[in-house]
Design brief:
Order of helices and strands: EHEEHEEHEHHEHHEHH
Bound molecules: adenosine-5'-triphosphate
Number of helices: 9
Strand content: 15-25%
Number of strands: 8
Strand order of the largest sheet: 4-2-1-6-7-8
CATH superfamily: HUPs
Number of domains: 1
Radius of gyration: 17 Å
Helix content: 25-40%
Distance between the termini: 54 Å
CATH topology: Rossmann fold
Length: 221
């Protein structure tokens, strides 16, 4: 088997409502720092544990594809966006395990805010049988042990990896916090700016911005 085909695969799920440079830097910095073979971007269909996205799944998927184009290490997976079922991470990971095989290290990439809410996810403890978790810093969200809910602090203590090499050595089960360039960009802020008629240029790729304009997404009602 080629060396490339043994490298871990990164998985970045999100509502991507819309996708922005905070997501893309997270994916790119994780790819390089964690030695990932590629990063799969997985727009949620109907997210299970948050309010309904503003833009339809087909539009969020289209924007993710436009944002990822030109980077051969990014792949957009339509599995959740094209399903009418609510999107849950653990069942998605089970499907991806079937595709990538039992031995391949899979690394679920999350920002610090998503990690802090992990214990509310459906079947969250099973996640560690299926993938590693790499937790990226995000402005405004504190990853210090003292700031973590007790359940998560316990998991982190048990599972924390020292470096990316430990993620490459086994298929699943470790947690690696890592820091990335701080970009204080959120989809919520982008939607709010659009509704107010502000410019959002340079917060997300031009191709995604053009799509928003052409399809009149996120306008004030
Ligand atoms: P919203 O504001 O609508 O909640 P969001 O900007 O947080 O959206 P999501 O699609 O919910 O975007 O995020 C997908 C993943 O990307 C999550 O794990 C989130 O923590 C991470 N993420 C999003 N923006 C950033 C950022 N600026 N820095 C680091 N991680 C980020």
């Amino acid at each position: 088997m080629r060396e490339e085909d043994r490298k871990p695969i990164g998985l970045l799920g999100g509502t991507f409502d819309p996708i922005h440079y905070g997501h893309l830097r997270l994916a790119e910095e994780a790819r390089v720092r964690l030695g990932l073979q590629r990063v799969c971007l997985i727009p949620a269909g109907r997210p299970a544990h948050r309010s309904a996205p503003q833009a339809p799944a087909a539009d969020r998927l289209a924007m993710a594809r436009l944002a990822a184009q030109g980077n051969p290490a990014f792949e957009v997976i339509a599995l959740e966006a094209e399903s009418p079922q609510p999107s849950y991470t653990v069942p998605t990971l089970e499907r991806l395990r079937e595709r990538f095989g039992a031995a391949r290290p899979l690394v679920l990439l999350v920002g610090a805010d998503a990690f802090l809410g992990l214990a509310s996810w459906h079947r969250w403890r099973e996640l560690f049988d299926l993938a590693h978790l790499a937790v990226a810093t995000r402005p405004g969200h504190d990853l210090d042990a003292a700031a973590l809910p007790a359940l998560l602090a316990g998991e982190l203590e048990r599972r924390q990896a020292r470096d990316a090499g430990e993620l490459a050595a086994v298929p699943a089960g470790r947690i690696l916090p890592f820091s990335i360039t701080a970009l204080d960009i959120s989809a919520t802020a982008i939607r709010r700016m659009l509704a107010q008629g502000d410019s959002i240029r340079y917060l997300l790729p031009d191709a995604a911005l053009d799509y928003i304009d052409r399809n009149h997404l996120y306008q004030a009602s």
